[in-house]
Amino acid sequence: MAEKKRIILHVDMDHFFTAIEERMHPEYRGKPVIVGADPKEGKGRGVVSTCNYEARKYGVRSGMPISRAWKLCPNAIYLPVNYELYTKVSERIMAILRKYADKFESWGIDEAFLDVTTRVKDYAEAEALARQIKKEILEKEGLTCSIGIGPNKLVAKIASDHQKPDGLTVVTEEEAEKFLAPLPVRKLLWVGRKTEQKLRAMGIKTIGDLARHDPTVLAETFGVIGTQLYLMAHGIDKSEVEEQRQIKSISRDITFEEDTSDFNLVLDTLEKLAEEVHNDLMRQQLYFKTVTVRVRYENFETHTHSRTLPFMTNRLQDLKKTAKELIQDYLKPERKIRLIGVRVSNFISAEKQKTLDTAS
Ligand code: TTP
Ligand code: MG
């Protein structure tokens, strides 16, 4: 008997951080709200974490230097990142979502994949399930989300982004290619600016153009990624929704809205990321030993650099200092940076650390 076709949901909260702020402060509703670094009257450093849809009308975007956001929208309500609060809300939402899935994979703070194959008989039932999920999140948390339903993770993720905010988009296996065809290739997960330019030079703008292209040529030009791109363009993605087991690492990364060689911006942002990682670490009551920094340059070349400390620690200053040292080699005036990330790993729990402390 043929295996039952999968049905996957991708849930993505709408303007997550600002939505939480608006929920706490109804007086913000209808006004542009920006969460991120302190704008300091336009002189602030650091970037926008997110902004609500009103602020997006002014051109403000996640990852944009806060000074630029200030120029575009000085009248917005600017708020610092209250990561602890957002993480708590996120955990409650993930707990709601988890109940609905056979297999559940949270993907960042405000997204998750749900494999609901055995929970529903067909796409109509999946759609009803999605409506129920939206209703429960709205009732319990006062927040809206957008949901995509598809035959795999790739299609579901692109579908959830299709109608935002408060959207619900269903794309069956039969409809997948047709749904993807008119969309820009950029929507495919691995296509960044540089690959997009390269594809454009080959006359490929939309996912449909990519699907019609000769796969051999794509493989010759892009290697393994070329073949992956070709399959994705046809709506094919075999990756499973993966349950996470024990936490192995905590990480945060950020893609700059524009590739940058402003190293003050990079270092300030690195500090912020370290603080967020540290917050999470404290909440989980963990001690770490290894720090990893990730840097992606504008051409998508990505480097990771790790250091294992000679001791277990949960101190923010150890994390910041190590991360800053690790990133130094990658700060080159001639190389613009697209993304940076900080990760800690090699954990033991605070409980265990206490035992070790007393033993030593
Ligand atoms: P997203 O889901 O990308 O953005 P969003 O939820 O704010 O907006 P949308 O309605 O388009 O989904 O990211 C989720 C949260 O992660 C976001 O609220 C803030 C945070 N974030 C950053 O801190 N930095 C970033 O560069 C991005 C993209 C998100
Ligand atoms: Mg979101």
Explain what the structure shows:
There is one protein chain. With 360 residues, the protein is of the alpha+beta class. 40% of the residues lie in helices and 23% in strands. It has 4 domains: 8-15 and 85-174, Alpha-Beta Plaits (2-Layer Sandwich), CATH 3.30.70; 17-83, MutS, DNA mismatch repair protein, domain I (3-Layer(aba) Sandwich); 178-233, 5' to 3' exonuclease, C-terminal subdomain (DNA polymerase, domain 1), CATH 1.10.150; 249-359, 2-Layer Sandwich (Dna Ligase, domain 1), CATH 3.30.1490.100. α10 (215-222) crosses α11 (224-233) and α12 packs antiparallel against α13 (316-328). It is globular and about 55 Å long. Mean pLDDT is 92; it is low at 354-360. Bound molecules: thymidine-5'-triphosphate and magnesium ion (MG). Magnesium ion is lined by residues 12-13, 16, 110.
Which labels suit this protein?
Alpha-Beta Plaits; five-stranded mixed beta sheet; alpha+beta; single chain; MutS, DNA mismatch repair protein, domain I; 360 residues; binds thymidine-5'-triphosphate; binds magnesium ion; DNA polymerase, domain 1
